[in-house]
Specification:
Structural class: alpha/beta
Mean pLDDT: 95
Largest sheet: 8 strands, parallel
Shape: elongated
Bound molecules: phosphoenolpyruvate, manganese (II) ion
Low-confidence stretches: none
Number of strands: 14
CATH superfamily of the largest domain: Aldolase class I
CATH architecture of the largest domain: Alpha-Beta Barrel
Order of helices and strands: EHEEHEEEEHEHEHEHEHEHEHHEH
CATH topology of the largest domain: TIM Barrel
Strand content: 15-25%
Helix content: 25-40%
Amino acid sequence: MIIVMSPNSTEADLEKVKIKIKSEGLEYHLSTGTSRTIVGVIGDKKAISELEMHCALPGVEKTVRITEKYKLVSREFKQENSVIDVGGVKIGGSQPVVMAGPCAVESMEQLMEAAKAVSEGGAQFLRGGAFKPRTSPYDFQGMAEEGLKMLRQAADKYNLKVVTEVLDQRTVEEVAEYADVLQIGARNMQNFQLLKEVGSCGRPVLLKRGLCATIKEWLNAAEYVMSSGCDDVIFCERGIRTYETYTRNTLDLSAVVAVKELSHLPIIVDPSHGTGRRSMVSPMAKAAIAAGADGLIIEVHPHPEVALCDGDQSLTPVEFNQVMDEIKRMSAILRGE
Ligand code: PEP
Ligand code: MN
């Protein structure tokens, strides 16, 4: 249930509402908008019904039952789009945000070259995995903390933010020390313990869609993160597994529209893992922006032919520059400029 406070309610009114919620053994989550405060109430159904009957407190405009299991994530909970501010970079605002870089951090030299290229192309974030979720245990697993340090150093040099994957509960704190945004990979979308841990680490979370996840399962995964205390969740559509084998995954761009209908949170698209093919990255990146995505995450490698991971889907710096140019022009047109 959500409790909508009237625009002229006072701090004291809100305090009384909070006390009432707590006295029923329920939890709350505040969303302070420009004109009003909304209190999301979470907990046992019976206790919520009880609270609903006794919620005619001063300053309360109305109470609304949210029918879906995901509540804090839902549009019903918050009508305006959420804009997530990562040290001045706004995700979900009027400009698409681009995160780019190699699949994996391989060396300082590789990362510096990549960071230079993506910053020159206009990306705001440097991506790169230090902990890699590989299908085979014999494949390169990532550089771990050494890789995290390199990411921070390269990003700082080129004035970029860092987004990187956290694979495991035990390394959440360590990754949060170096990264601006923590990525939950497709394989971990329903690792509920990890979702709770990452939700309470104090950093924004990029939540990739699971390999076979429905949109509602994905929204519920985000609810785990939000209900653990994190307001700043960004969805990332990265393709789902279908019977098609020509592409690595089937990029579901309709999910961009669906998530925008069902949630107030921003969504970006990963055309690299979504297709697995370099030739498809630029067309799908543009299609994603046309569909209303708030940004992109794109694999870029200074020398894709020698990449330790995902070279076939990585753009060269020149190709990245080209697609960024097109995206800038496209998004200006979409904004009516
Ligand atoms: C990645 O972005 O490096 C990655 C492993 O992606 P996904 O979890 O979508 O497969
Ligand atoms: Mn990859």
